[in-house]
Amino acid sequence: MFVGIDIGTSVVKAAAFDRDGRILAVERARAPLVAEGDRVEQDFEEVFAAVARVARAVCGGRAPALAGITAQGDGAWPVDAAGRPVRRGISWMDGRAAGIVAEWIADGTAEAVYRATGNTVFPGCAAPLLAWLDRNEPAVLDAAATAAYVKDVAFQRLTGVRATDVSDASVPFLDPRGRDYSPAVLEACGLGRRAGLFAPVHDPLPGAEAVAGGVLPAGTPVAAGPTDVTAAAIGGGVAEPGDGLLNIGTSLVCDVVTDVLDLSGEPSGFHFATAEPGRWLRVMAAMVGTAGLDWVLETTGTSHGELDAILDGTAPGAGGVAVLPFFAPSGERSPFVEPSARAEFTGVSLRTTRAELVRAVCEGTAYAARHLLEAAGLRGSVTVCGGGTGSAAWLRMFADVLGRPVRVAAGPETGARGAVLAAADRHGIELDTTAWTRPSATVDPDPGRAAFHERGYADHLDRVARARDRWAARARPYSTRSALES
């Protein structure tokens, strides 16, 4: 039995697999978020209690041959030397550091970081959050032994080892060629004096044995990482340069395998280092994916169970309603960084139905996915995973908008599956990767709907460009002279 643990944003999952990758058991537990205005935090002790519940449940009293851990990335999780939190963890969804990101964009720091690492900064990533803590709660960092990522805190509590991997360390401090923290980037972010807070980077993955008296039986081989984006790509069988993964989860995450490190052009997205030197995941991760759908369903009084009937019962184009799906209060991070980005609905009238509003959000999200995949350099096959794959009608819409077949990743729990495969590689345990990652289905596009959405996508890109101009103008300092002259 092989166990994968995936610490999601609000749900912790564990899956047990047999040697051929067949699911033996899956368990999930909530890990509540504490949201106050633009601040989103989590209590790590609640998160770890959820880890313990799901891991013990899937093991069922048996000792697994191996356990792999993956988790949500980014955020800031300051802990002491024993891996105990010194304050609540700050989620990647948090927006309190938006002002710092705006400063860094204005003074060139954000671009300098991207040119050095291939990774953008956004309000919920470690760099601005730690800079915010250093300015506003310095005693927290003084008391901390590690400014950790959540999977690494869990790994430390399971094994006693303080470490991280190249994927989590990538955003935004890792030198992508040297595969260790960049002192210049730490200094640029004002964190040079806090360098001791960063856990050692184990290349490619930290591996150890579970300690006695913990969640897993003592001696169980455990590996931490990679981060959930990379683990999902592994679990989905996305391995060749040019191939992409579309993860329709809380956050819409699109990534493409690349062996070219191109840091030119507009700073956008991320380059996650992988276990193989000279190969990266070019990641474009939007702030909102299914969370936007959840919002429109709740707002219109629609249940998730109605979604397929709504999409099947409405025509492409949603009766003229179009949506830019930038719903996050902290703005957008891919395929551009804009803290002031907000969702926009156009074409709404008194005759607009709730079904059309729902369909418009689904179409806007699909257009955003295509924008992200193209920005990441997609030129091969597309594999899809995540909670959004539960809607067959939405899956068909994604295939139509992308204009190409989409392979549905082996499920459930693609991230946990990838965590096990990565852990097996780390500990020298041979598993049949082809069998573990064989897609469960392929969804082909409809030629007529694909042609319609080709035009819709062009309109989407035009509306994004015009919205960015407005957001940029809104962000410029107010000038009395220019206002009078206008």
TrEMBL record:
Q: Which residues form the Carbohydrate kinase FGGY C-terminal domain?
A: 272-424
Q: Which UniProt keywords apply?
A: Carbohydrate metabolism, Kinase, Transferase, Xylose metabolism
UniProt organism field: Actinomadura namibiensis
Q: Source organism's superkingdom?
A: Bacteria
Ranges for domain Carbohydrate kinase FGGY N-terminal: 1-235
InterPro entries assigned: ATPase_NBD, Carb_kinase_FGGY, FGGY_C, FGGY_Carb_Kinase, FGGY_N
This chain's protein is named Sugar (Pentulose or hexulose) kinase
For this chain, the family text in UniProt reads: Belongs to the FGGY kinase family.
Q: A GO molecular-function term, please?
A: kinase activity
GO biological process entries:
D-xylose metabolic process
